[in-house]
Amino acid sequence: MLFCWGSNKFGQLGLGNAKLNEAETTILSDLEGMEIKCLAANGELSAAINSYGELYTWGSSKNGAQVDSSGHAESQNLKLPKLFASKDEFMQVACGKDHMAVVTLDGRLMTMGSNDHSKLGFAPVEKAKHDANSWRYAKNSGGRLNTQSC
Fold first, then answer.
1. How many Å apart are CA 122 and CA 143, to the nearest integer?
2. Distance (Å, rounded) from C-alpha 52 to C-alpha 60?
3. Cα–Cα distance between 111 and 114 in angstroms, integer?
4. How many other β-carbons are positioned within 10 Å of the β-carbon of residue 44?
5. Distance from C-alpha of 92 to C-alpha of 40, rounded to nearest angstrom
6. Domains of the chain listed by start with CATH number
């Protein structure tokens, strides 16, 4: 069972509204009954991975912080947790100011959101090819990645 409280201006609590502040602890009912393996929150953005490896995201969509599995940016803030429909299974997620990083079960790193300061794992010169409204698998050392942080 997940509980949430605090600022909710962008729907980052996942309660279905954008109430400025939630002072009391509230159950996040859309994920009730799921076994959550990983949970991440950072300011305006939140995400969770359940025991099936499914990724749910909610909150701010600023700068392409949240996209669908086709790479299209969400046009509005997500006020409820939304399943990231992908064939991949995920094991870990981290949220930054306006970006997200997720590790797949097979150890690949997927990033989405704003690429300022190259925080998505690709050089700024590639920004024209990969705008903020897309996601991609970041290059790593070729080994299996087990953890990440935004």
1. 17
2. 25
3. 9
4. 20
5. 9
6. 35-137 (2.130.10.30)
Residues in the chain: 150
Residue type, 44: E
- Nearest alpha carbon to residue 91 among 146, 133, 137, 142: 146
Tokens of 7: 């600022």
CA dist., res. 8 & res. 77, Å (int): 11
CA dist list (Å): 87 to 8, 49, 113: 30, 14, 20
Q: How far apart are the first and last CA of the chain?
A: 25
Nearest to 11 by CA among 76, 87, 75: 76
Long-range contacts of 116-120 (CB under 8 A, 24+ apart): 119/150
The alpha carbon of 62 is separated from its chain's Cα centroid by a whole number of angstroms, namely 12
Of 38, 44, 30, the C-alpha closest to 102 is 38
Note the pTM of the prediction, 2 decimals.
Answer: 0.84
CA torsion, ordered 50, 55, 58, 63, to nearest 10 deg: 150
- Structure tokens given for 25: 């602890």
For the stretch 73-132, pLDDT in tens is 888 999 999 999 989 999 999 998 888 899 999 888 888 887 777 677 766 544 444 444
